[in-house]
Amino acid sequence: MLMERTTSDAGQTYQFTAAQYTALSDEERNAIQGVANYLEGENLEAPDDERLSSTFNILRPCDGCVPGEEIGADILLDIRRKFACIYFSASELAEEEIRRKGLRKRHDSYFYLVVDPSYADATHVAVVDYDQEKRPFCYFQEYTKAWNLEFETLQEIAAEVLRARDEIVSTFLRVSVKPKTPKKK
Predict the structure, then answer these.
(1) pLDDT of 184 strictly over 70
(2) What pLDDT does residue 84 have?
(3) Domain 6-176 is classified in which CATH homologous superfamily?
(4) In sequence order, what are the residues at sequence separation of 6 or more whose Cβ sits closer than 8 angstroms to the Cβ of residue 34?
(5) Where do runs of H (alpha helix) occur along 57-153?
(6) What is the pLDDT of residue 107?
(7) Separation between Cα atoms, residue 182 and residue 179, nearest integer Å
(8) What burial letters (b/e) apply to 114-147, b meaning 16+ CB within 10 Å?
(9) What confidence category does residue 2 fall into, taking pLDDT thresholds of 50, 70 and 90?
């Protein structure tokens, strides 16, 4: 999808648009809702260009590790927020997928997101098992410099969330599900 920016009557240019949102599949829209929920604490209801661009501003391309207007008192917390909104959402979607497959009970929480933010070097992200004594597994690991984690469109954001979700689920299935052994006669 080509980047489609829009300009408001007041001359404001929007990075993320309602047209991009409308073009998303249901699965992509669900991923975007997860990121929005992490960032804003609520789902997007009939989002317009201004709301979308404001909500996902931390993920837009910029000259630094996070857009200047997103920098608060602690840059490392801002970098952590940038990475966590993507990968926490992915881990939540992975939990939903695993529950749908009937592999875990509804009340089980089993993924824990670890983000080691860095301003000068790569930020590391890992999704590990919440119960390390029973399941000492890392289901997902990623690292990149904060200024390389940026997205031109909502579809790109959704694609990264879904890629991470799929890797978490795949790794979970590989290390957690025991193959059925044939019965002896």
Answers:
(1) no
(2) 98
(3) Protein of unknown function DUF269 (1.10.3100.20)
(4) 89, 90, 92, 93, 161
(5) 75-100
(6) 55
(7) 10
(8) ebebbeeeebebbbbbeeeeeeebebbebeeebe
(9) very low
Of the pLDDT bands very low, low, confident and very high (cuts 50, 70, 90), residue 1 is very low
CB atoms within 10 A of CB 175: 14
The DSSP bridge partners found for residue 141 are 126
Please check whether residue 28 is in contact with residue 70, taking contact to mean a CB–CB distance below 8 angstroms: no
Decide: residue 185, CB within 10 A, 0-12 exposed, 13-18 middle, 19+ buried: exposed
99-146 pLDDT, tens digit per residue, is 888 876 655 668 999 999 999 999 999 999 888 788 789 999 999 999
Sequence-separated (6 or more) residues with CB below 8 Å from residue 94: 111, 127, 139, 165, 168, 169, 172
Rg of the Cα atoms in the chain: 18
Read off the amino acid at residue 36.
A
